[in-house]
Every structure is written in C-alpha cells, then in structure tokens.
Amino acid sequence: MRIEIWSDIACPWCFIGKRRFETALNDFEHKDDVEVEWRSYQLDPSLPDHYAGTETEYLSQVKGMPADQVRQMFDHVTQQAAGEGLNYDFDSILVANSFTAHRLLHLAKTQGVLNQAQEELLSGHFEQGRDIGDVDYLAEVAQRVGIDAAEARRILSTEEFTAEVKSDIAEAQALGANGVPFFVIDRKYGISGAQPPEAFAQALETAWGESQRLPVLAGPGSGTDSATSGTGGDEAVRDGAVCGPEGCD
Q: Stretch 231-248: mean pLDDT, rounded?
C-alpha cells in the first residue's frame, strides 16, 4: 500500500498531522507493507525569502486576519501540538519562504534521509525559531542528517530540484488538494488535515481491505449483469460458468 503525504515546512498542522499519522501507522498490523512518500507543497508561494515581521504580523497584516484571532489560533494550535509532544513557540518563528527548504528535502530524499531532514526543519521552524530560508541553516541541517554541507550549499545555489518541488505542488492541485497536510492512499482515498490517530487508523484498515480484493471485470461479483452485457465478441464473457460455495452453474 502506498501513501503520499503533501506537506509544507511552514504549516503548523503538518507537523502535528505527521505525529498523528505516525502513531496510527506504528500500530497498524501491516505497517511493514506500507510505503510512505512525503511530497512538497507551499501554502504561500508569494511569500518573500524573508518577511520582516512576526508570524502574528504576517497573518494579520498580509493575510488580513485580526490580531486577536491570530493569537487565539496560535494558542489552540500550541495546545494541540503539546498533545503530540511538540513544543511550539510562535513568538520565535522566523517567517520565510519554504521553497529552498523543500529543495533540500528532495536532496535528502535522494540520500535516503528525507524523514530525518523533515523532522529537523519542522522542529527548527516551530520549536527553535530557526530560519528555514537561510542557506547556512539548511546546510547545517544537511550535515546533521549525513549530507555533505558543502554539497548542499552548492546544490541550493543552483536550480537543482526546483522542477521536482513544482511538480509536487502541481500534482497536489490536480488531485484537488486545497490545503495541507493532505494524505492520499493508493490514489483511491484522500484525507485532508491533521486528523486524530483513530481516523488515520480507520483509513488504513479500510484501504488495506480494499487493496486485498481483486476487481472482477466480468461474471458474478463484477457488479454487472454478464448475461445481458454486450453482443458478438462478448459471448465468452456471458457464457463463463463458475463454481461457488453452493455448487456449480
């Protein structure tokens, strides 16, 4: 079973959703048969490399949200994060465009350390007040997860992995995602938002059950009337006899 997760480093619910999904997956009986692929998304591509203001000012001045509403939202998200063992500090957040950091994640993916790099960046942004738009910090993260810092700097100074990030974003939009986190299971089920672990657990069980059933294109169980469908070349389909628990046709 394959699960794709679109996420933005600058999205507070994405870190919470990651923890909740991982809780459900860890308890899932068939977790060893689940392939998880993290994909890039940007909530605000128009954000400058760095915004000269706080997260509260950004949302209230740029997005037009009342400051009181922003603070209440931060309090609520902080409480939810604490429930997942995360220590959010919105007062220390440095507002920056996440595109370059997503390019680093694609580099990390090629090195097999995507999850580690993602954890570092999310924690750095929401818990430590680090600058996800700063190449020095991104090189530091790269080194911590086992990527040569000089190589990371070189790559981030080019356009490498730009196409991959844009492709991820375009694909999410094509699938109908209008926010993140956005989870897609086997390209059959979509789950939007940082749902409770119980919701993810139910989705995993449902999708796994569906993945184990072989679709029947014709005959009993196909959902169509094989005795009346088609003519001519369909005779073999209409005349196909089967045996079942109660005997044979």
A: 53
